[in-house]
């Protein structure tokens, strides 16, 4: 598969790296806070904001354990997912807010019911989290919408990655793959930048990084290596509550990442011709280069010896490479030591 198109954004090698700010459950079930995250992501300049759409009754049971035991108000994981729910009208309001801020709205669906809800809201692509990689019924529901899939590979083997890629290729369905390590936060040694290139080579689809390190360094390195997509978690502050705060970037860090992406893109798209650049810098070159000067003041009629000559800035006089043409000549006027020697000074 080649490049993919998401709401007017072409994604793939050679295109502008696509940056997604992942809110996840950082809103803690607060609709107002969810809207705040849209504003913060827009100010940072990302391309898309992503939530997670959980419908507790459709995806979970009372038997599901907490990944990280962090909640002081939810007796069970099911209760937590219930608290994270928004109504269809509330989701529609978030979608509209994102559009107003010129952000692409994305949300990971964790049930067929969530797929239906988000599809009706016009979501342009599906983000498949690492934990849903093997959810065939969920993938089938997404495929029926004919929208691109953005798939994280955080817990997957190469055989599984190649299998899902072959299925999507057979269906001629547009998709991209994220290198991801499902640890929160991820240590830098476990980020796996090498896998991005391996995905490009082995699968041939747009490849990106879904990062949980809590720093901008992996994303910067991934962009420099040609990653087509970047997904990072966002937190309004390091003092916020939630299991993913340590794996997230602040709005200021996210803005720095976007600025760096744009700067790298500008440099990559502006190849330099060394000869042409040297011509343009000729005046500067003269300032930094040197010409022939005298080591001491000398009077008219004096024969110039090699020991009388030295090289001094700027390079607007007689080039020092012409020293043999100067030695043995006589001065036709007095010349001080603090001025360049000129051709008109010698016979």
The second-level CATH architecture of the largest domain is Alpha-Beta Barrel
Quick one: overall form?
elongated
Q: Hey, roughly how much beta strand do the residues contain? A: 15-25%
Quick check: average pLDDT?
93
Helix/strand structural class: alpha/beta
Characterization of the model:
By secondary structure, the protein is α/β, with parallel strands linked by helices. The protein has two domains: 259 residues, TIM Barrel (Alpha-Beta Barrel); 71 residues, Alpha-Beta Complex (Type Iii Antifreeze Protein Isoform Hplc 12), CATH 3.90.1210. Helices cover 35% and strands 17% of the residues. The chain is built from 13 helices and 13 strands. The strands form three sheets. Strands 3, 4, 5, 6, 7, 8, 9, 10 and 11 form a nine-stranded parallel β-sheet that branches. Strands 1-2 form a two-stranded antiparallel ribbon. Strands 12-13 form a two-stranded antiparallel ribbon. Helix 9 packs parallel to helix 10. The chain is elongated and about 105 Å long.
Quick rundown:
With 347 residues, the chain is of the alpha/beta class. The chain has helices at 31-44, 56-59, 77-83, 88-100, 112-120, 136-143, 158-170, 193-202, 217-224, 251-268, 274-280, 282-288, 323-326; strands spanning 4-6, 9-11, 18-24, 48-53, 104-109, 126-128, 149-152, 175-180, 207-211, 229-234, 248-249, 291-294, 309-312.
């Amino acid at each position: 598969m080649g490049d993919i198109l998401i709401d007017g954004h072409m994604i793939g090698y050679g295109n502008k790296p696509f940056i997604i700010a992942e809110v996840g459950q950082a809103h803690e079930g607060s609709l107002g806070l969810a809207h705040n995250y849209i504003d913060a992501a827009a100010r940072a300049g990302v391309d898309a904001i992503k939530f997670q759409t959980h419908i507790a009754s459709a995806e979970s049971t009372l038997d599901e354990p907490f990944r990280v035991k962090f909640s002081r108000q939810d007796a069970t994981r099911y209760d937590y997912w219930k608290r994270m729910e928004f109504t269809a009208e509330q989701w529609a309001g978030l979608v509209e807010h994102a559009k107003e801020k010129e952000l692409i709205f994305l949300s990971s669906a964790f049930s067929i019911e969530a797929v239906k809800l988000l599809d009706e809201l016009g979501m342009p692509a599906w983000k498949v989290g690492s934990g849903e990689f093997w959810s065939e019924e969920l993938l089938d529901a997404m495929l029926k919408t004919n929208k691109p899939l953005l798939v994280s590979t955080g817990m997957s083997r190469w055989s599984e990655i190649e299998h899902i890629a072959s299925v999507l290729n057979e269906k001629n369905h547009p998709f991209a793959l994220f290198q991801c390590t499902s640890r929160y936060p991820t240590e830098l040694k476990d980020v796996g930048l090498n896998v991005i290139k391996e995905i490009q080579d082995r699968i041939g689809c747009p490849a990106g990084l879904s990062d949980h390190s809590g720093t901008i360094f992996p994303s910067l390195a991934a962009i420099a290596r040609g990653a087509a997509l970047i997904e990072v978690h966002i937190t309004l502050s390091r003092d916020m509550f939630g299991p993913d705060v340590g794996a997230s970037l602040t709005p200021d860090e996210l803005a720095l990442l976007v600025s760096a992406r744009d700067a790298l893109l500008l440099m990559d798209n502006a190849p330099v011709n060394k000869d042409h650049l040297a011509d343009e810098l000729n005046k500067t070159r003269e300032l930094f280069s040197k010409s022939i000067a005298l080591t001491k003041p000398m009077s008219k009629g004096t024969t110039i010896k090699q020991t009388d000559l030295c090289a001094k800035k700027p390079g607007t006089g007689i080039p020092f490479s012409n020293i043999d043409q100067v030695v043995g000549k006589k001065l036709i006027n007095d010349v001080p030591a603090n001025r360049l020697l000129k051709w008109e000074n010698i016979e």
